[in-house]
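Q: Hi! First time doing this. I have a protein sequence and I read that you can turn it into a structure. Is that right? Here it is:
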Amino acid sequence: MRQGYGNRSLVLKSRHVLIFMFTSYAVVFSLFIDAEARNYLVLFSGTVGGLCLIATGLKVQRHIIFALLLISSMAVQALVIGNDRGLLSVGLTAVYACGYFAIAALFARIQDQRAFLQNMAGWLITAFAILSVIQMVASLASLPVPNLILSKGLWSYNSLSMEPSHVGRVIGMTMLTYLVLMREPFRLENIIYIPKKQLKILAAFLTTMLLSGSALAAFAIVMVFALSRSLIWVIIVAVSVFLLWPLLELTNFVQTNRVMLLLPSFLSLDLDAIIATDSSGGSRFVPAVIYLQESMPSEIGFWMGYGRDELARFFLGRIPGFGDTVAAGFVPGFFVVYGVILATLFFGVFVLRFLSQTTAPLIVFWLIFISSSAWNTQIFWYGLILVQMTWAASSQDQALLKMKES
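A: Yes, that's right. Below is the predicted 3D structure, encoded as structure tokens:
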């Protein structure tokens, strides 16, 4: 469809707006980051999305009503037991959600959604790989490293993300989306076959993930290929890891060794060991362990929320290596602030509604790697956007198949 905005001399098509908004949720440029790690590019994109929804009459999905109910309830809760900062947090959630729904509405106008999303995913993976290599070369040559925001030093590059551990999440889920869309629609895929024309994307993916120097990224590589295949492939990967475990422990590859140390730490629930092994990746999971140990279903706050100030009671000084910093992502931070009821509604509106055979791998990946991120961050909403867009592309395929069969 050639729907657009502007006059005849400069027509801004909805496809162009979609590309800009989708990309702004996926990448981070140091130019738009302030001292508190706010990304003004994605906030601008979300604001543009809200204006598009209001001013251009974009057709929104029906579940936006439940999203409005959710955000309104969050605002009421912030007013009753929170403070002005809590209300500002709800406003920020609304901005991210506006961008989310605008992307969904713009994507609905795309005629071949599967091809569009696969091309965008491939482009992003390639762009991340190119910048990762440039950062590596610049670092080795003692030159200024472009787009360097947060890094652990040599062999740890953030590419187009905020930090190296974010690379594993963003590119991991993007690659999983790419592989899911590669499958022949409505056919069981071959469990080991990858077309030759896709090998460049695969090489770019591995390059980006390994150059991040993150143990989480190394683990995400395994999960991406396991989740993108059939159940048989998942079993093969699990058995292979079990059999090769002694050999992997003998390697000197940094990321592999860190994964080998990280997994036993998780199983033992040793908070100090998790943080000591991988401070960035481990810190995403430690708050969930604390919440499970401390939450009390008999308390009204467990169901209705304790409020933003209670985050300090749960987590302040209890996460090794974080001192006076309160670090808690959506899981379990959202549960603490807004309670199990609103958290369940959030899952229903933005996750479970899009559960299907096609999106199940993406949702599993999101739950494992991204749900521990703060809910007012672009990485969190980028994951939700990929789930929604993949579901929409799959639904479009099914509708076209039914039309052909009728």
